[in-house]
Design brief:
By secondary structure, the chain is of the alpha+beta class. It folds into four domains: 132 residues, Orthogonal Bundle (Arc Repressor Mutant, subunit A); 133 residues, no CATH class; 66 residues, Alpha-Beta Plaits (2-Layer Sandwich), CATH 3.30.70; 75 residues, no CATH class. The protein is 43% helix and 14% strand. The protein contains 21 helices and 14 strands. The chain has a six-stranded antiparallel sheet with strand order 3-7-8-5-4-6. The protein has a two-stranded antiparallel ribbon with strand order 1-2. Strand 1 and strand 2 form a beta hairpin. The protein is elongated.
Length: 433
């Protein structure tokens, strides 16, 4: 194929992407995708960038270019949503987002744009839906990248407290920036003739991620009121709110259909309980009220509901039944039930949700054996490469791996590290000094 004559730059980029907890399995299709998104020179340059957010000065040093030259390249990449740039206190920093949720989606989040989106859509479909190793790996991370938000209006008992971070409305109301883009999943499916009729211009991004996408035309800036209206529109179409698996500084909320959404389609393959962090609520069926209409079964995005016989003599009456481990707590079923037969009840045990992006990324790095890549981020130096190699070997030892993966370490100690104001762990797209 075409990439074979000049693959070295793209191979280096793939190596760089695979240092992040969310890797990219190499394949011919992946290289064709990267060829559409990056020139080979850009691929080589991006492969030298750190995992943590960085300044123009850092990139210039890594590339052996002047800051002026580096600035031109960085801003060009950011203008195509391949890098995210953030301005804070007058300082501009950049970061390379992971492929998902990241630059794969961004490339399809507006109609037209800088890329051949029909070809990209076909290649993404091949890479994610046909080859599917990438999506399977992504959705089997022990700490999922995304979580479900419960439809708040289905929590009828006002004595039940819904935490702020569990409310999509609260994410919208507290965001510093709100951007609306084209749904990546339905846009991709449109190019292979499989899109549904759910709204397309409804993908929500927030805070610094939204600011960068708005700046370069990949998202349309909206106010709180319009975003809340779009949220209601999504609910009327029985779409699931699937967002960033963090409590603070949420970067995105997708409004997902069960037929096109990468996460929901993948979840049905690998198991919803593994692929998606559930909300803190679970569907409860009140048998006496169930009319057997099957509306809840039809809208459940992860096939957690089915109809079974009531086993009554001389009767064909049916009853909805839940597979509890598959319920993601979205509440779409309760919304469509017309017989008051479904209630969303609090789960017996709270679902663990990382505090912020830093917390989640460190957990995923531990789980995938890549923590050394975060600690020794600048592996251009031999000393860092050697130390990273040694630490990587240590982290693979069964006792060490088991200790790091323990619930206590995942929550108590890492959280304390992140809360330390001098910590240099990445929080979203910001590097705290």
């Amino acid at each position: 194929m075409g990439h074979n004559t000049s693959r070295s730059g793209y191979e280096k980029l793939v190596d760089r992407l695979n240092k992040f907890p969310q890797g990219v399995p190499p394949s011919d299709t992946l290289y064709e995708i990267l060829k559409l998104l990056f020139s080979e020179e850009e691929a080589k340059l991006v492969s030298l960038l750190p995992i943590k957010p960085f300044t123009t000065k850092t990139a210039a040093k890594a590339w052996k270019k002047s800051e002026a030259e580096a600035s031109v390249v960085l801003n060009e990449l950011a203008s195509r949503a391949l890098l995210v740039d953030v301005e804070r206190d007058g300082n501009q920093t950049f970061s390379l987002p992971p492929p998902m949720a990241g630059f794969f989606e961004f490339s399809m989040m507006r109609i037209g744009g800088n890329f051949d989106q029909k070809l990209l859509g076909e290649l993404f479909y091949q890479y994610m839906n046909i080859e599917d190793e990438f999506v399977t790996d992504l959705l089997t991370l022990p700490t999922p990248i995304g979580r479900a938000y419960v439809h708040e209006e289905t929590i009828e008992d006002h004595m039940i407290h819904v935490l702020d971070y569990e409310r999509a409305t609260k994410v919208i109301k507290t965001a510093t920036h709100i951007g609306i883009g084209t749904c990546y999943c339905r846009h991709k499916k449109e190019h292979v003739g499989e899109a549904c009729d759910a709204p397309m211009e409804i993908c929500m991004t927030f805070n610094q991620t939204a600011a960068s996408l708005i700046k370069y035309g990949y998202a349309r800036q909206v106010e709180e009121e319009e975003c809340l209206d779009l949220l209601e529109l999504a609910k009327k179409h029985n779409l699931v709110q699937f967002g960033d698996n963090v409590q603070n500084e949420v970067a995105f909320i997708c409004n997902c259909c069960s037929c096109c959404c990468e996460a929901l389609v993948g979840a049905r393959k690998v198991g919803p309980y593994q692929a998606i962090n559930s909300s803190n609520f679970i569907c409860n069926i009140i048998d006496d009220n169930c009319k057997g209409c099957q509306k809840c079964v039809d809208v459940c995005p992860v096939e957690a509901l089915s109809m079974v016989s009531r086993n009554l003599p001389n009767s064909k009456k049916m009853l909805a039944q839940l597979v509890e481990e598959n319920c993601i707590g979205c509440g779409v079923c309760a919304r469509v039930c017309g017989s008051d037969a479904i209630k969303m009840n609090p789960r017996d045990q709270k679902v663990f949700t990382p505090v912020n992006m830093a917390h989640r990324v460190v957990l995923e790095a531990i789980e995938t054996g890549k923590l050394q890549n975060l600690i020794f981020d600048n592996q251009a130096h031999f000393r860092h490469r050697a130390l990273a190699s040694i630490l990587g070997a240590i982290l693979k030892l069964p006792v060490i791996k088991q200790t790091l993966a323990s619930k206590q370490v995942k929550s108590k100690y890492i959280l304390k590290l992140i809360q330390n104001k001098n910590s240099k762990i990445v929080n979203s797209h910001i590097l705290k000094d």
